[in-house]
Amino acid sequence: MAPRPAWKGYLKLSLVSCAVELTSATDHSEKVSFRVINRKTGNTVRRQYIDSVSGKPVDSDDEVKGYEIGGDEYLLIEEDEIDAVQIESSHTLSIEQFVDRAAIPQIYFDQPYYLSPSDEVSEEAFAVIREAMAKQKKAGIARIVLYRRERPVMIEPFDKGLLLTTLRYDKTVRQPDEIFDGLRKGKLDEELVDLATHIIEKKQATFDPSGFEDRYEEALLELIAAKRKGKKPPVAKPAERPSNVVNLFEALKKSLGEETGSSPGKSEKSPPRGKKPSAAAKSTKKPAAGKAKKSA
């Protein structure tokens, strides 16, 4: 069964327009989900709105949205009044400008959607816009009203269609200096960076999303399967938590040995690329066996 479009409207580039539809690029239907159950009866429970003053349940026909205008006073807004609010981006994706995709920081990317023509008449105009964008290697910036919010979006060629990614507003993104401002700046030991670089080189691979599996969901399914069979839930051994590294040089050296399949203790050679050990590196030589046991 084909997924339902999340939005239908028009894609517009200057005076050229075509009918399009937006479909979510992600699927969350296979996640393990739980219902809330009444432990005493075994029945499912449902949520119900309760009047905050009288304490009585509110009938669904009496539920209405309210906008607080001061104190405990609210302005009532009906659903059809909200639906009647229409602006251009409610029905038209008008590309306002084109930018280099790399110029948009990753932190502004939100949700991805597929954008495709919604009828045969629109296919030619859609293909021309897509091909022109691919030729120029540019991404379009537009706006769309989605789920009762206007959102800035980035549109780029993707496969035979277009990929639309909603963007976060600048005011909703924390600036990095709010978090990283307290980090100290200092000159790093070149030997340490060199060892870390070699570890990265050994771990290089081709990106393959098919290799990702939700191991936590698998553990939940094992729990469910065990309980259905009347068995005790499997008790997972807690994963060992890593601790702060005391001797960074030795930790990096050992890590590199594990990645290359060799034992770092077999060789006392200098760090990679023929660089001389720094003072910090020299001070990390292993003590005699007797002393090592004592310090442990």
How are the SSEs ordered, and which strands pair?
Blueprint lengths: L6 E7 L2 E9 L40 E6 L2 E5 L1 H5 L8 E3 L2 E3 L9 E9 L5 H14 L2 E7 L4 E9 L2 E7 L8 H5 L9 H13 L12 H14 L19 H13 L18 H4 L6 H7 L1
Parallel strand pairs: 1-5
Antiparallel strand pairs: 1-2, 2-7, 3-4, 6-8, 7-10, 8-9, 9-10
CATH structural class of the domain at 7-27 and 85-172 = Mainly Beta
Percent of residues in helices comes to 25-40%
The CATH topology of the domain at 7-27 and 85-172 is given as: Ku70, Chain: A, Domain 2
How many H/I helical runs? 8
Strand content: 15-25%
Class by alpha and beta content: alpha+beta
The counted number of beta strands is 10
Q: Order of strands across the widest beta sheet?
A: 5-1-2-7-10-9-8-6
What would you say the CATH architecture of the domain at 7-27 and 85-172 is? Beta Barrel
Uncertain stretches: 263-296
Question: What is the global morphology?
Answer: extended
Characterization of this structure:
There is one protein chain. By secondary structure, the chain is an alpha+beta fold. Helix content is 25%, strand content 22%. Among the domains are: 7-27 and 85-172, Ku70, Chain: A, Domain 2, CATH 2.40.290.10; 189-199 and 249-263, no CATH class. The protein has helices spanning 79-83, 123-136, 176-180, 190-202, 215-228, 248-260, 279-282, 289-295; strands spanning 7-13, 16-24, 65-70, 73-77, 92-94, 97-99, 109-117, 139-145, 150-158, 161-167. The strands form 2 sheets. It has an 8-stranded mixed sheet. A hairpin with a 2-residue loop joins strand 3 (65-70) and strand 4. Helix 4 (190-202) runs parallel beside helix 6. The model is unreliable at 263-296 (pLDDT under 50).
